[in-house]
Design brief:
Blueprint (H helix, E strand, L loop, with lengths): L6 E5 L1 H19 L6 H18 L5 E3 L6 H7 L4 E5 L5 E8 L4 E9 L1 H7 L5
Length: 124
């Protein structure tokens, strides 16, 4: 519950693809007996942050409206965007959708720092 409303976290779009691929990689590593890897650390970080978002959808860092890439506005009708830092300098990008009934954190992207900088127009 957040502000008296139930919350939900949904992974969609390229974030869903990235998450599923990471799950498969980690499953394969575990099957080979690998107990610690960057993939496993990243997957655990994503799962941990999803739980934090369930408790508080505003957990992440709010991205100013003038920095929201047009692609998110066109594809997802986004008017707010948030970022959560993950392990290994990865980023998880999400938007918050709400109604009188519930609050949904919609995870749109999971990307490394280089792709994040490129997508948001930051320079080195």
């Amino acid at each position: 519950m957040f502000k008296g409303k139930p919350t939900k976290v949904i992974i969609t779009g390229s974030a869903k693809e990235e998450f599923e691929e990471l799950n498969m990689l980690v499953g394969a590593e575990i099957a080979r007996g690998v107990t610690k890897s960057d993939h496993q650390t990243l997957l655990n970080s994503i799962k941990q942050k999803i739980e934090l978002l369930r408790d508080n959808p505003e957990f992440g860092v709010h991205i100013p409206k003038d920095r929201i890439p047009k692609q998110y506005v066109i594809n997802y009708d986004v008017n707010n965007l948030w970022k959560v830092n993950l392990s290994g300098a990865w980023r998880m990008i999400y938007t918050i959708k709400g109604s009188e009934v519930e609050i949904i954190s919609l995870i749109l992207d999971i990307m490394d720092h280089r792709d994040y900088s490129k997508k948001f127009g930051y320079r080195k």
